[in-house]
Amino acid sequence: MSRAALFTVLLAGMLVIGTSSAANAAQMDARVNPNSDESFFKINYQKTVFIEYPDGGELFDELHTKEWTLAGTADSSNPDVQDLIDKLNSKISRDGSSTRVSDLDVIYDIHLKGRNLNTSIDYKVTLEGTITDYVISKDQTKTLVDLGWRGLTVVDEVVIDGVGINHPISALIDKEPAVYEVLRGNEAEEILSKNLIDANFILEQPMTNWHFLFDPTGINVDAGTFGLDESIAGFVVSHWTMGESSIREGRQVERVFEAEVNADQKYIVRSVQSADAANLSAIGFGALDMLDGVEIAGITPTAPEGFATTSTGEFPILIVYGMAGMAAIGGIGFFIFSNRALKNQETAQTGVDPSRLTGYQTSSSAGGYQTNRGEAQLKDESSYQQTRSVYDEQSSHQAPPSPSTPTEEEAACGCAASATMGSECDCEMQGSCLCDATCRCNADLCKEQASSMS
């Protein structure tokens, strides 16, 4: 029963995971080229809002059959996008970074889907653009690059072509005013007013806690034959990755906000966002540092000589050498303990004392040849009974078996023994009888034989 229950739970979990879509908060991908004036970045912001009406009511009547989408794109030529760039740069400046967003494309998609028990609203905003002014200083050996710009966040409302894309409540105000009237003025409105464009956690997570790898493909002689990007030719590429929930990086969980709305019925409004994730690459080998409270990276074309690292820095190497050292210490301790224990053991001898034995020759010469054979015997007059073998003792106590001599009656009557054991029929089964007239066997065959001989 316990195995069946466990299998049921696992199967249900797989079905839930397989049928649910991820609601990641912020996902950033960026590549910084210290040899260029601008570098590309892309960041997605996602959030899902559920409006639940388990007991029906006005919201059920308004939403359960509805489905609509608000989607669009805009570039830097749009005044609304220019306003968004200014807001992003203002936030970057407050974070202490000198980097600027120079170009930006905005893609947004808001999708409402009504169902019998709840309605879901999926919000997704994608920002693609370039950054500039990220190079702090540069010389012949190293370039200092600013990494403090990655917390791309806007708190205020962002309107693109008349559509509010930063606060989920804006879409309800425009498309579902009746639903907004039910939710306004309570905790649900506060939850729906939280900004979607928020990457503060990516900035707050120190990059020293991110996983680090570097790719030396660019410095290979034949790398160009595989269509290698010219921007990384002759360079290694450093990669930093954030998003794992661990002791090292910190515990990362979904951000879930929930509120109850008591109107004509009891409604539940839930906002769900997964943990943030980020991938940041730099052309060259990057060594992290701090400058005036802002994280920076010192970029060199190649890695230092002899440098070897994995996705968790030097951690695995330290573990390997640490375990080897502990094993060596344990082995040394084991041998010391065994040696002391061996010295402390008593080595008392058992059996006959060798000093009481003397040897004598048992072989004799044959022609001109004689073997050196001998045996040992006691020097004193000690009794042989004290040293004799236990096998000799067992042999002396065992009496030889005495042969059994058949009686005259048994010799005369081959079936007499069978009569004693009550198995007279053996003679009949053999079809013959070795009995004479004196046999007392009860078998009919023996009786006939006995009567014929009398």
What characteristics describe this protein?
29% strand, ten-stranded mixed β-sheet, 454 residues, alpha+beta, 13 helices
How would you summarize the topology of this molecule?
Blueprint: H1 2-19, E1 26-32, E2 38-52, H2 58-63, E3 67-74, H3 79-94, E4 100-114, E5 118-132, E6 135-138, E7 143-146, E8 159-160, E9 163-164, H4 168-175, H5 177-183, H6 187-192, H7 200-204, E10 211-215, E11 237-242, E12 255-262, E13 266-273, E14 277-283, E15 285-291, E16 294-300, H8 315-344, E17 357-361, E18 374-378, H9 390-397, H10 408-412, H11 416-420, H12 425-430, H13 444-453
Parallel strand pairs: 1-14
Antiparallel strand pairs: 1-2, 2-5, 2-13, 3-4, 4-5, 6-7, 7-16, 8-9, 10-11, 11-14, 12-13, 15-16, 17-18
Helix pairs in contact: 4-5
How would you describe what is shown here?
There is one protein chain. With 454 residues, the chain is α+β, with helices and mostly antiparallel strands. It folds into two domains: 304 residues, no CATH class; 46 residues, no CATH class. Helices cover 29% and strands 29% of the residues. Strands 1, 2, 3, 4, 5, 10, 11, 12, 13 and 14 form a ten-stranded mixed beta sheet that branches. Helix 4 crosses helix 5. The chain is flat and about 135 Å long. The two termini are 84 Å apart. About 10% of the residues have low confidence.
